[in-house]
Amino acid sequence: MTLTFNSEFYSQLLSEYQPRIIKTEDDNERFLEIVEELLSHPKLSPEENALLELLVKLIEDFEDKHYQLNSSTPHSRILHLMEAQDLTQNDLVEILGSNEVVDKVINGHLELNKKQAEALAKLFNVDASLFTIE
Known about the structure:
Layout: H1 7-17, H2 25-39, H3 46-66, H4 74-84, H5 90-96, H6 99-106, H7 114-124
């Protein structure tokens, strides 16, 4: 069954959360809370997933600009998503193949291949591009 994108529902979400360019720490914190709220849902609708991707991008842009030393990377995104969903490294073994691979990915010593990025994207209900280097 293919889920279709409901523009009316997406418009309602945009109206409710009002995503915009983040200019202050308070706005960043508010959008981080919304992201965590969305990540707590067991399954996101396509519209919620689109909102999540938009918010993550806005947060990344703000944090890249204001926290140059803590720049977001694929492995830091994985760590954040794991923490938000209360997952451990063991939860990723089946997806990434072995404890050794998970450990290397978590520590930023190994980049994910396309298949691994897509598997993690499915697990976290986000776009696979979050786990690859552009």
